[in-house]
Amino acid sequence: LPPSIPPPTQDVQHARGSRRRWGAGILTLLAVAAAIAAILILQREQPGTPIYVAIAGGMSGSGAATGQETVQSAQLYFGRLNAGGGINGHPVELLVYDDQNEPAVAKQMAQEIVDDGRIMLVIGHSTSSTSVAASPIYEAAGLPAITSTATADNVTQSPWYFRSVFSNSTQG
């Protein structure tokens, strides 16, 4: 820099990092909007065909209560959505997958979800370890996933994995 312009201070660097995080957040929202638009475009040609959404998480074992709450919440929301005509006339159908909150099982469930071929979106997995385990499978298939409970920073390293809750760094 010319001598008349002082070098950036730590505060400027922090502001730049903050702008980058906002930019990443905006890009994430745009990616989700693009995925929804793609779903709607693909489904437009076949009116009334269901849109399939997978819910993956611990539905048995120690995490069963949380997993069942997630399923019941989604059923309540999508039930109301379907009662109002669905999404552009397409009902949403939920498919539930139990990964038992185990990373190895989460990988198997993620592969089953991808192999199904009908699923347009994954809600879950419940824990950070299962989300991280399943993430490469969804990324390879180009299948978006969103978690409301996994907080580890590396959960959203994939451009196909999103979260609707704070990360560990943000909370700290």
From the structure above, extract its key features.
five-stranded parallel beta sheet; about 170 residues; alpha/beta; 5 helices
Tell me about this structure.
By secondary structure, this protein is of the alpha/beta class. Helix content is 51%, strand content 15%. It has five helices and five strands. The protein has helices at residues 10-44, 64-83, 103-116, 128-141, 168-171, and strands at residues 51-57, 92-98, 119-124, 145-147, 161-163. Strands 2-1-3-4-5 form a five-stranded parallel β-sheet, sandwiched between helices. Strand 3 (119-124), helix 4 and strand 4 form a beta-alpha-beta unit. Helix 3 (103-116) packs parallel to helix 4. The mean pLDDT is 85.
Number of strands: 5
Shape: globular
Sequence stretches where pLDDT stays below 50 over 5 or more residues: none
Order of helices and strands: HEHEHEHEEH
Distance between the termini: 35 Å
Percent of residues in beta strands?
15-25%
The mean pLDDT is: 85
Class per helix and strand makeup: alpha/beta
Radius of gyration: 19 Å
DSSP helix fraction:
40-55%
Major sheet description: 5 strands, parallel
Strand and helix map with partners:
Blueprint: H1 10-44, E1 51-57, H2 64-83, E2 92-98, H3 103-116, E3 119-124, H4 128-141, E4 145-147, E5 161-163, H5 168-171
Parallel strand pairs: 1-2, 1-3, 3-4, 4-5
Helix pairs in contact: 3-4
